[in-house]
Amino acid sequence: MVNLYKFTKSIALSLSSRACHTKDRVPFNLPEPVSLIPEKFKYFRFPIYFILKAFVLYMKHNLSYRSLAHSLNIKVSHVTIYKWVIKLCTLFSVLFPTFTIENVFSVHADETVLVFKEQKYYVWLLVDHETNFILCWHVSKYRDMGQVKVLLEKFFGNLEPKSIELITDGLGAYESAVKLLFRNINHVVVPLGKNNQCESKFSLLKDFFRLKRGLKNTKNLAKYIQGFCIVKNLWKTHNGNINHVLSHLHSFITTS
Question: Which is nearest to 125 in space by CA: 112, 113, 114, 115?
């Protein structure tokens, strides 16, 4: 029987004795490998592409978790996709608290009611007049001046409030907030049902929840609205190109 150690050693010697005719040499001291998986996705079993695609498709299209699991061409359960969506909505609530654009001079504000398990929740939106982007959003159990204050403070952030035109349908809470807290805002009242920039978003939002057959856990309401607004804005930004939307989300996550 041939000694395996001697055989491999002879092959190694014969290979090392050959002259190398290539100019490029592979360095012995290779750098440390760079991880392509962000820390936030460290414990996911599937590639980031599928996770982000499931999130975008769920928020944009009328797909249930089960039908979405079948459409991804990977073996994944609907429960796993549910966890992906909730985790991403939670993550984006930190990364995307608002949607910032330059030169905003006129905004529309409005609120709508969503009822889950006999409990009323109010969804507040602030929409740019020119671009129709959702600038910021808020969910509350109350409909008063304090909620208007939260919405406008999200929009202004840490910056000094600038002069803008605020268009609403006449809810007294807006007028009170403008007079007491935001004197630089010019409040314009339009007839009820004529605040189209916000009302069109609310129509899509209610369709979203109706087709999803409501929520089993009302604690996730704000998370779903967060995801809905983010995908709605990015879809408009990238003209409906899902690959560009996925690239935008991926780059934002990896650089944040």
Answer: 112
The span from the first CA to the last CA of the chain, in angstroms, equals 61
- Cβ neighbours, 10 Å, residue 161: 15
What φ, ψ does residue 25 adopt, rounded to 5°?
-110, 145
Can you list the residues of the chain whose pLDDT is less than 70? 1-43, 95-99, 158-161, 213-214, 256
- Which region holds residue 112: left if phi is over 0, alpha if psi is between -120 and 50, else beta? beta
- Asked whether 3 and 219 are in contact (CB, 8 A), the reply is no
- The number of C-alpha atoms within 13 Å of 253 and in the hemisphere containing its C-beta is 24
Positive or negative, the CA dihedral 197, 213, 98, 133 is negative
Q: Could you read off the pLDDT of 164-189 as tens digits, one per residue?
A: 999 999 899 999 999 888 888 999 99
Among 121, 172, 131, 120, which Cα is nearest to 148's?
Answer: 172
Place of tokens 């005719």: 21
